[in-house]
Write a structure and sequence with these properties.
The structure holds two protein chains of two kinds.
Chain A lengths: L13 E9 L8 H12 L3 H21 L8 E9 L2 E8 L26 H9 L2 E7 L2 E9 L3 H5 L4
Antiparallel strand pairs in A: 1-2, 2-3, 3-5, 4-5
Helix pairs in contact in A: 1-2, 2-3
Chain B lengths: L1 E7 L2 E10 L4 H12 L5 E12 L1 H16 L3 E5 L3 H9 L7 E3 L2 H8 L2
Parallel strand pairs in B: 2-3, 3-4, 4-5
Antiparallel strand pairs in B: 1-2
Helix pairs in contact in B: 1-2
The chains are: A alpha+beta, B alpha/beta.
Chain lengths: 160, 112
């Protein structure tokens, strides 16, 4: 199995998992299981899990489908963490430069005949995540997504 | 992800089970196109067995909706769970798709 998963290491309220997703057929299909394990370890709600799956499916499938101009195996680094009530997702790939934030917002009130396919996935990412940040660093795309977890403050009020 | 095709009162019904995501949406898209090629032109998509639908699923449904519009057919969806419903609402799909609660309503709306 090419999906390598590092151990979840609890450390002062921060815990994270690292994984590699490749562009080989079938590899992407393993991500929901990774998410389910991570979610169980952090008691994430069904909605947070669902939205995370939607976001990851969009980002990863875009990279795999559009990011590479050769037939070689490529690795995408995935890092999930929860700290202080914030879920953070980092996705780093060596594909061609692509900034999801540069995709225009789809026209959601256009009549059916004018509705475009493009931009829907990015629109969902922007809606489901509190924060989206992109950087091109050297030959790599780096995407950081943050989601403020609901109810964390109530559950942790008074904690040190 | 599995799709079963039935015919009820002259309306084609596609019953979808499982996840609709980037790895499975293509197969759903092919079934939708195939179902709309029939002379019936009326299609119900039962999503009650779908626990998860991503933008890849939205894309194939948008294409199906456009196709239905062009052939002056009818497309009705039912059985969306709250999270799938939210994906549709966030994407503005509820403004052009006919979505209802259950099969009986869907059959009426599809003109069975």
């Amino acid at each position: 199995m090419d999906l390598f998963c590092g151990a979840c290491v609890p450390l002062e309220g921060v815990s994270s998992v690292n994984a590699i997703v490749t562009n080989e057929p079938g590899n992407l299909a393993r991500v929901p299981e990774l998410v389910a394990d991570f979610a169980a370890a952090h008691d994430l709600s069904a909605k947070v899990v669902h939205d995370l799956n939607v976001v990851l499916d969009e980002v990863l499938s875009n990279i795999i489908r559009h990011g590479y101009s050769d037939d070689k195996r490529h690795e995408i680094e995935l890092h999930l963490s929860v700290a202080n009530g914030v879920l953070e997702v980092q996705i780093e790939d060596d594909g061609s430069p692509f900034n999801p934030l540069s995709v225009p917002v789809p026209n959601l009130s256009a009549p059916l005949s004018e509705r475009q396919i493009g931009g829907l996935g990015i629109h969902l990412i922007r809606n489901f995540m509190s924060e989206v940040a992109y950087a091109r660093v050297g030959e790599r795309n780096q995407l950081v997504l943050r989601n403020i977890l609901p109810g964390w403050e109530e559950n942790n009020r008074g904690s040190p | 992800m599995e799709v079963r095709e039935d015919s009820v009162g002259g309306v084609t019904v596609l019953v979808v089970q499982g996840r609709v995501d980037s790895t499975t949406a293509l197969a759903l898209g092919e079934q939708l196109t195939g179902a709309l090629a029939s002379p019936q032109k009326r299609l119900i998509v039962d999503l009650a067995g779908v626990d998860y639908l991503s933008s890849a699923g939205l894309r194939v449904l948008l294409l199906a909706a456009k196709q239905v519009d062009q052939i002056h057919g009818k497309l009705v969806l039912h059985g969306l769970n709250s999270r799938v419903q939210e994906v549709f609402e966030t994407s503005g799909f509820t403004s052009f798709l006919t979505i209802c609660a259950n099969r009986d309503e869907a059959l009426v709306l599809a003109g069975a």
